[in-house]
Each structure stands twice: as structure tokens, then as C-alpha cells.
Amino acid sequence: MDEQIEVKELDSVVVHFSGDSGDGMQLAGNIFSTVSATVGNGISTFPDYPADIRAPQGSLTGVSGFQVHIGAGKVYTPGDKCDVLVAMNAAALKMQYKHCKPQSTIIIDTDSFGPRDLQKAEFSSDDYLAEMGIDSDRVVACPITKMVKECLVDSGMDNKSMLKCRNMFALGLVCWLFNRDLSLVSNFLREKFRKKPAIAEANIKVVEAGYNYGHNVHASVPNTYRIESKVKEPGRYMDITGNKATAYGLIAAAEKAGLRLFLGSYPITPATDILHELAKHKSLGVTTVQCEDEIAGCASSIGAAFAGALAATSTSGPGICLKSEALNLAVIDELPLVVIDVQRGGPSTGMPTKSEQTDLLQVLYGRNGESPMPVIAATSPTDCFDAAFNACKIALEHMTPVVLLTDAFIANGSSAWKLPNIDDLPEIHPHFAPEEQKYKYTPYKREAYSNVRYWAIPGQEGYEHILGGLEKDGETGSISTDPDNHDLMDHLRFDKVARIPVPDLEVLGDANDADLLIVGFGSTYGHLLSTMNELRAKGHKVALAQFKYVNPLPKNTAEVLGQYPKVVVAEQNLGQLAALLRIRINHFAPYQYNQVKGQPFVVSELVKEFEKLINAPMPKEEKGTTFYSKILE
Fold first, then answer.
1. Distance CA 616, CA 605 (A)
2. pLDDT tens, residue by residue, 142-165
3. CATH number of the structural domain 507-632
4. pLDDT in tens, 37-74
5. What is the CATH T-level fold of the domain 239-424, as seen in this structure?
6. CATH class in words for 7-226
7. Where do the domains of the chain lie?
8. What is the DSSP secondary-structure string of 434-472?
9. Which of these ranges, 223-232, 354-363, 535-544, has the smallest mean pLDDT?
10. Is 513 exposed, middle or buried (0-12, 13-18, 19+ CB in 10 A)?
């Protein structure tokens, strides 16, 4: 073997870490993505873990994965297939090999491929590589468990503790493969385990051992790789998950509004990290309450909103079901409340750790009576910050509860995020009752143009009032069962939401000359954008319109969707956005592409299906319809 190994420069690479739930794959992947973001690479990650608290060791159902796509420039998806697969045991190889490219490098711990391990992973022979059709030249077969124990033999750690460091050996190998600076890894570990310095140093020692193993034996690969960052906008960057970005967006909005932030919440996968993150920031005036159930979480936040706080509640789909009655109280009281729905697989308990977009119609219509609420859908982990900030701004300036839709994919996934300057963020002006209403205030007096009622904080002399769940007279605020008043109040609440100004729908790609317009909402943005780019690279005229504001819809929605001969709505449900657009836009009947797999879209599959659609002849239009409707297989 030559002493010098060639270093290849790449524009992007996808690495997939996989192993048992207890093998620390999420931590290894998170460290690698953080180090990559630190050196200026674009990143997109996808943690994928089982719903079991702890599945049987070595079982197929217990495999946990973390995929990270790093690039010289901005990357929009975690990638369809990986260039490097780390498989810490036989089950991981069996379950995750399907994510590999044909020539990908596979790193395995040979100590976890014994007869019992192969049996648990349902291999039929000892020659597991041949059974799966894997070329052994692509495999870095390393006795990781044995080498970790040898590395830590003098550490004083017990066997169980030493085994927990196996993920760091694999991380060291990957860092060698991609020429990563180990000092960045060491800094991360010392910070993470700052209260346990011995653990930090043990992990650092194992990372270095993995790196040195690759360097000394060249790990059976012809090249190592480097991803050089392209010119980026100067500033401070960090690797941030969607849940953390959401929490930071709420904090920033409270700062700009001059209000205390209150979060009433009940732990639920995959939203709990929002509660965990906000609980760390009491010094910033944040109050968090972990309530006894979902209903109490929402009700306590409504009380905080009535008392003058910027109030939020976080949950997932099952929690939205439970909160629905309390949300109606916020609607009829017209109180500012931010409701964060981190969508997951359903129905019922469904697939708690998997991602879907199946709550859209629930947050729009899942309450009794006419109960309009603005709905915003974040498009990426970093966009969760802006989406949360804007949800707060709408809630406070228009006196309404607002739903922020994220999902497990972007909530747990991460991207490189440039820290914003708080002074550069938009101003937020809560719609407080003016001085001239003192002693004349009633709770449903409204601004004429916007129909927004004025907000008076309890305890202010001259602004005493009562709110509640019974219908109120629009003039006096007293309980009213008058039919004309109820009709008026329903119209006012609906009209107030409809008048909220939102940005126009932006069209990317061949905006004025496309044969196909791709339409989506929320977290599918990166996959749909990548699909559009690949189709355009093939010579097709394609455009993309991604909805971030779902209620109210952008005012140019009908105009945009009516410009193109073929429109396909792609979403991770069975057609909820398509149904909404049919309701709101006359004679609109798009093609649909729907998947409910609990996994992100696969760009190569989208390209294949949409190319078929582009090349298909235009169907004969049916009377009264502008577009031909078809569910794509």
C-alpha cells in the first residue's frame, strides 16, 4: 500500500450511520454534521429511529439510523442514497443496505457479525456479504468492539461503559475518510460531557483510535475525500434542528414584542424537545410548564395569553385532537396563541417516530363551529425559526391563535443555520387597547380596517372585562344568544383571518414557461426543489410553488395555479392540500402524487414519475374543468 493516499475533492457526500438503538448512532451523526457545519459545509440530516423504547439487541426492528448529506454549497435534502454506510451490527447492514449507492463504502464492526447476530438479523448463511450481493472490496471490515476495549483497557471503565464508546471509533474512521479536524470533535465532546470529563476523554481517545486506524491501514479504500466549502455569507453558523430553531423563534418573537414567553406543554414525540429547549432559558424570561395532559397544556397557555404573555403550546397530531376544545376557546376569545404541531405518523398512536403531513385538514377544520385559524407550514429545519417568529407576529398583531405545522422530518433533522441579528428581525406590535379606550373598553371593539379586536391586560384600571366560551355581543361583550349577533361574530372572526396579509406565492424555476408546475407545502420543499432542478437539468420546463402560508392562502394562488397546462400536488398524505385547493379555487383539479410511508420523498422516484407526467399527452378536457385529475401511482 502506498504511503500517500489520494485525496479527492467532492461537491457533496451522504453518510448513513446505523446500529442498535443503544449504539449511539444519533450522537455520532450529530457530531459529524456539527463538525461539517462548523467548517462551512451545507448540511441536511435525517435521524430515523424506532418507536420502541429499547428493542431487543441485534433485532431488525431495533435498528436506528442517522443520515447526513454534506455539500460544498447549500443542500436541500438528506439524500436518496448514501456514499458511506456505517453498520454497527448485522441487523443494521440487513436493514440499511438498501440506502447504499452501487459503489458506496461500507464500514462494519466484524465483532457484531457472529452466528447469533446473523441469526437475529435473519441471515441464512455465514457468508452475509455474498448473501446480500455486496462486493467485499467495498467493505471496511474492522473489529471495532475488540479495538475499543483494547483502547480503554487502562481507563477503569466497566465493559458496558466501554461498549458505549464504539460509535466514536466509527466516527473517527468517518472523520479520517473525509479529512475532518479532530480538534472540532474533541471540543464537541468536552462540551457535551463537561460534567463528566473522564467520559469525554475516553470518547476522544476512541475517536482518535478510529481515525488512526483508518490512517495507518488506509482502511481498504483508494481515496479519502474533502468537501471544500464554497463562498458563504459571513456570519456565525451552527447546526440546528427544527425543534431547537422553533424554540429560538419563539424566544426572539417575545424579545421583539417586549413580552414574557410562556409554553404550556405535555411531552409527546416528536415535539418534546421544544419544551426541553425552552426550559433552559429562564434567564431570558421564558416560563415553561410541563402539564399533566394535553388539555391542561393548551388551557394554561390560553390563561397566559389572557394575562398578557406571548403564549404557545407544543404537541403532535394526537395532542391536537385533545386540545381542540381548548383551541376553540382561544378562537372565540380571540386570544394570541401559537400552537405548534410537529406532525407524525397516524392515525391514533400510529408511527410515533415517523414523519407525515397528515394533520393539515385537522388544524384547518378539526373544531366544532366556524373556527378559523391561520396555518403556517415550515419548509426546513432552519425555516422553523422564521416560521415560529412569523406565527407569533400574526398571533399578537391579529389577536388570533395560529397553528405552526412542522413534522418529525424537519423537527429532528438539522441544517447549517446562520445566527440572525435580533435588530434585523421585523418589529412586532401587539394589538393593545389604546389609552382613549380607558373606561370605555369592551373586549370586542375592533380596528375598522383589519377587524382585529383590542387586547387589554387584566389588572389595568379602566379596562376591566370578561371573556369566555359563550358567544358575546360584539358591542358590549355581554353573553348573547341573538342570531344576528352570532352571524355577525362568525363573519367577523372569519374575515379577520382572511384579511391577514401574507406574502405572495413564489414560483421557482421556469416560472413563466413551464410545462409542469410542482406544488407542495411545508417540509417537502427540499425534495421538490431538488426534483425540479434535476428535471430542468434534463431539459424539461418545470416550476415549483411551495406553500408556506396555508390559511389564509396567498392572494395570487388562483392566478399562479391557473397559468400552467399541468399541475401536480405532491404531499405526504392522501391529498389534503389538493382537496383544500379544489375547495378554494374554482375548476381546479390537479394531478396528485401522494405517499404516506413515514419517510421523506425520494427525489429519484419523483423525477421518474413527474417525467412520465411531462411526456404524457394532454388529456381531453372535461366540460367545466381546467385540469385533468389523476392520482399518480
1. 17
2. 999 999 999 999 989 999 999 999
3. 3.40.50.920
4. 888 889 999 999 887 777 788 899 899 999 999 998 88
5. Rossmann fold (3.40.50)
6. alpha beta
7. 7-226, 239-424, 431-501, 507-632
8. PGGGTTT--TT-B-TTT-PBPB--TT-TT------SS-B
9. 223-232
10. exposed
